[in-house]
Amino acid sequence: MIDHFGINCADFDKSKEFYDKVLGVLGYTRQMDFGVAVGYGAEGHPAFWIGDMNAGNVAGPNREMHVAFAAKDPGGVQAFFHTALALGAEPLHEPRLWPEYHDKYYGAFVRDPDGNNVEAVFHGGGPQT
Q1: How far is CA 95 from the centre of its chain?
Q2: Is residue 59 part of a domain?
Q3: Domain count of the fold of the chain
Q4: Three-state DSSP state, 37
Q5: Could you tell me if residue 119 is inside a domain?
Q6: Coiled coil: which residue ranges (predicted)?
Q7: What Cα–Cα distance (Å) separates residue 102 from each residue in 5, 58, 67, 68, 105?
Q8: Mean pLDDT across the stretch 88-96?
Q9: What is the mean pLDDT of residues 22-34?
Q10: Beta carbons within 10 angstroms of residue 3's beta carbon
């Protein structure tokens, strides 16, 4: 159900040091680092992300959380996105491939009623054209 999730951190440098060490003893390492966000996990899959809440990527004072739900296929990603919009969610990113994550990462992002960044993702590529 949960593919990955992320939290935002007030002291990003301190949080990176903390998670590098506490997750390191559990066998998890940095899998991706975008400067303002770091993904931890194993075997190339960042399942837990931390973000710099001072980098301007946070909507409002609630320090949004990010959660990504696993979809079974590209149609699931599209259905998630369109259903969320029909319910009044703010669109963040329409369904598309995200090659900066990996070449078959197909995802869509919306903001839920409480301001959280919610995503559906399929790791097998986009719809066939």
Answers
A1: 14
A2: no
A3: 2
A4: strand
A5: yes
A6: none
A7: 17, 24, 18, 15, 5
A8: 96
A9: 93
A10: 17
